[in-house]
Every structure is written in C-alpha cells, then in structure tokens.
Amino acid sequence: MSEDRDSRRATGRLGVVAVAAVLAILAAAAAFAAPSSRAAAASPASDAEAVSLAAKHCVACHAAEPTHPAFGKAPKGIRLETLDELRRHAKDIITQVVVERAMPLGNETDMTDEERDRLGAWAEGHKE
C-alpha cells in the first residue's frame, strides 16, 4: 500500500515538473516571437516613411559619410540612405531593429516601439 502511494506521489511530482517546464518553454517562445509578430500586426510604414525613419534613426551611422563621431564609415558597410538600400537590408532591419532591438545602438535616437513596429511591418513586406 505504502509503495503505491509513494509511487503515485512521485508520478504526480514529475507531472507537475513537466507541466512547469512546458509552460516555461511556451512563455520563452512567446516572448521571443512577440516583437516580430507585433510588427507584423502593425500597419506598415509607407516607403517615404521608411526612408524618413531611417534618416532619423539609422543614417547617422549607416551612410556613405556617417555624421556620428564614432564611425568613419558605415558599420559592416551597410548603408540605409535610399529606398533600395533599405529594401536590400529588410531582413537585417527586422532582426536588428524589431527582434533584437540592438539598433539604433543604445537607442541613442530614442526610437519608439511604434516606430520599430511600423518599420518592421514595412520590412516584412520587402524581405527577400
């Protein structure tokens, strides 16, 4: 009798641990997916707005002649001054601006979540 009860308790504890682990994994996956899905749900910026957002938040560093004092040339050679350049780097924009939020570097230009989402939604429609 005692062995059955102990066995059921152990099985019950394993079930609780398994459920907790699954919930933790789902929460982590939802947190990771949230920025890009939020961007996809946002209304995309127009081409003109995408260029304007890049001019405001990206071009100080990512230009043929950066104006940011830390850079003599565009980091990784990525220039974001024109619509064609933005389109070419749409996947990078999604990753760096929306998902990882690594750009703008240190959010030095105070890019808002709404700007990230709109630029991300625009980039979603232009990634190759």
Describe the structure.
This protein is an all-alpha fold. The chain has helices at 2-41, 47-57, 83-88, 90-99, 113-124. The protein has one domain. Helices cover 62% and strands 0% of the residues.
Write the layout of secondary structure elements.
Layout: H1 2-41, H2 47-57, H3 83-88, H4 90-99, H5 113-124
Quick summary of this structure?
With 128 residues, the protein is mainly alpha-helical.
Order of helices and strands: HHHHH
Structural class: mainly alpha
Mean pLDDT: 82
Q: How much of the sequence is in beta strands?
A: under 5%
What distance lies between the first and last C-alpha atoms, to the nearest angstrom?
64 Å
Strand tally is: 0
Number of domains: 1
Rg over CA atoms, rounded to whole Å, is 22 Å
**Into which percent range does the helicity of residues fall?**
55-70%
Choose one word for the global shape: elongated
Largest sheet: none
**Total helical elements:** 5
Contiguous uncertain segments of 5+ residues: 26-34
Entry keywords:
single chain; 128 residues; mainly alpha; 5 helices
